[in-house]
Amino acid sequence: MLNLNQKPKIKKISYRHKEYITCPVCSNEFQREEMLTGGGRLIAGELTDELRRLYDNNKKHGKIYPLAYLLTVCPKCLYAAYPRDFDKLNGEEIKKLAGMSDARMNSLRKYFGDASFVNDRDLLLGAASYLLAVDCYGYRGSNVAPTVKKAVSSIRAAWLFDDLAKETSSTIYRKFSEFFHSKAYRFYHQTLNLLQSGGENLEDAGHVGPDFEKNWGYDGMLYMCAVLTIKYGSSEKDIKKRIQNFEVTKIYLSKLFGTGKASKSKPGHLIEMIRNLYDKINEMLDEYYKELGGEN
């Protein structure tokens, strides 16, 4: 017999921790939200050329965006960081982040209206969390590998804003996606320079994705630098600087491909993707050198 008073069951995607955490910037207490796992919620789809794992629609739970839940965001001052870094603040960092809280709130209001992190995460809040993280890590010290975090957060922001653009047909979100893709391109190049010079440590970064499913580590950083160079490095107006960036990226790929052929830890499809990137970079370099030769 149908019970008219029975409320329909809502399939939960996330939950709140019972314990409250205290924001180190504004002392606000709140419960961190995390995505529920298990129960067949995530149905893995293809792996994109940017190492993003796509997920198919779930009939029970609908579309799920795992990336939306990875950052801890204070609902009051909008300080955002990955859980491992959230409390690792010194006095100077707290002062700077507190001083920029109004700017963060104004940005959220300007671009996302009345969106609030008091509410459960959705695609919009997930994208907003990475926008906030890129800003907040700009005030962090080298002990948390902030440039690495800005690179990873930028590419994740680009993906989620692209998802928003597809769902809403919004040109604003499309522009955000392009903006953060170009940000990611610059940050990945900066990251590799810092890792090689010792300015930042990959161990301090923890999981560097770029997606949440698999930590591709340093190899992933090299690969992402290459794929983003092909997609966005061509927009560099100075052709000599453009060639320099492509030549550096070619060296990165050579190392990656060389170690990949001798390593069983790299899946075959990744090796094939690396080979295709290497060939594409050579083609583009040939074009740029011809263009440079034609200059007066």
Keywords:
single chain, 296 residues, mainly alpha, 2 domains, two-stranded antiparallel sheet, globular, disordered N terminus
Write up this protein.
The chain is 52% helix and 8% strand. The protein is mainly alpha-helical. It folds into two domains: 14-235, no CATH class; 236-296. It has a two-stranded antiparallel ribbon. The termini are far apart.
Q: Note poorly predicted spans.
A: 1-8
How many individual β-strands?
8
Number of domains: 2
On the 0-100 scale, what is the average pLDDT? 88
Largest sheet: 2 strands, antiparallel
Adjacency order of strands in the biggest sheet: 1-4
Structural class: mainly alpha
Q: How much strand?
A: 5-15%
Shape: globular
> What is the C-alpha radius of gyration, as a whole number of Å?
21 Å
Percent helix range: 40-55%
User: What's the SSE pattern?
Assistant: EEEEEEEEHHHHHHHHH
Beginning-to-end CA distance, first to last residue: 86 Å
Q: Give the number of helices.
A: 9
Task: Give a brief outline of the structure.
The chain has helices at 91-99, 101-112, 123-136, 146-168, 171-197, 202-205, 217-232, 239-261, 268-293, and strands at residues 14-16, 21-22, 29-30, 33-35, 43-47, 53-56, 72-73, 80-81. By secondary structure, the protein is mainly alpha-helical.
